[in-house]
Amino acid sequence: MRARTPRFVVYRDNALWKARELALYFEAMSKALKEKNPQLFLCPDMTQWGYFLNIYGRQQADGYPDAYVVSCQHSMMRVMNEGRPLVGGIYWGRYIYNDIYAQLTPAEMIGTMTACGMDGYTCYGMNGLDDGGVLNRMEPDFLKSLTAGNRWCAEVIARRKGVRTKEIALLFPTEMALFEPYEVGNNKIRRLDLLGWYRLCCDLGYQVDVISSHEIEKGALAAYKVLIVAANDCYGTLEKGESEERIREWVQEGGVLFHGPDDALVRSCFGIAGERCEKIPCRYDKTIIPQGESFCRYRDGIAVSDYVDGSCCR
């Protein structure tokens, strides 16, 4: 991939072509349907499964319910639809390996979508034969929670005023999402890096928007104080000169950028390159055992945290 071999270029170009065809399909269908009936409400449904549901073949996903997933994915949708009414989406169904609703209730999921700025939501799962749609057979506790969540959603949306505060932007790894299949080694942990950053910021009380390089090229960084670059081992497979220039200007004007180890964007944009190393505990007030699939040292700069061997800064 990094060498951009002919095989990879063909694979990349095919993926870009499919993405473009999908956009053209929605554009053409929207125009055709509106001409047929201007009263139609159109809502593109681009994916059935979420970005964080890591399923490859018949290998089973973790299946652990996490409200941050609902929040993070709807944050992506909110940013992509800036300035327009936005409808969220969810599928109500059973999960054969885990009783997810015993740990995360419908009311919590609906509340999360509402707090993310949705102007409403659409769902499916009622009496469906194709995908386990058994809403009519769900337990009374589930239905009670669903009713409470819907009522709360309607009340809150009617009371919302003003615009959402912008504090932290989290860069979505577009290239990795488009080009890297699930079966590539450590793909799962790289995908979850985005969610880990999002969870951390939310737990600290910050407002977080998941943005892409498209928003950066349009000048969106001016509204944020912090930019976090999530893991993206496919960065560099596309030219990003304009977005990198915007990031450099933003940092020079006082913007704060966080990134992970051996990050390709930071290396390309600022010339900051780390040295790959083995997993070593580090010191930050106390000894910490870091987790992840990539570790490196930095010879230059001010050390905020050292590895326990004291050899280099982290």
Short descriptors:
314 residues; alpha/beta; 3-stranded antiparallel sheet; 11% strand
Secondary structure topology:
Blueprint (H helix, E strand, L loop, with lengths): L5 H31 L30 H14 L7 E4 L14 H10 L5 E4 L15 H20 L8 E4 L2 H6 L7 H17 L4 E4 L1 H5 L8 E4 L11 H12 L3 E4 L4 H7 L4 E2 L5 E3 L1 E3 L7 E2 L8 E2 L7
Parallel strand pairs: 1-2, 3-4, 3-5, 5-6
Antiparallel strand pairs: 7-10, 8-9, 8-11
Briefly summarize what is shown:
This protein has 9 helices and 11 strands. The chain is α/β, with parallel strands linked by helices.
Strand order of the largest sheet: 4-3-5-6
**Count, helices:** 9
Mean pLDDT: 85
Rough outline? globular
Proportion of strand residues: 5-15%
In this structure, how is the largest beta sheet organized? Answer: 4 strands, parallel
Work out the helicity level. Answer: 25-40%
SSE ordering? HHEHEHEHHEHEHEHEEEEE
Number of strands: 11
- Show unreliable segments: none
Straight-line distance between termini: 27 Å
Structural class of the helices, strands and pairings? alpha/beta
Rounded to an integer in angstroms, the radius of gyration calculated over CA atoms is 22 Å
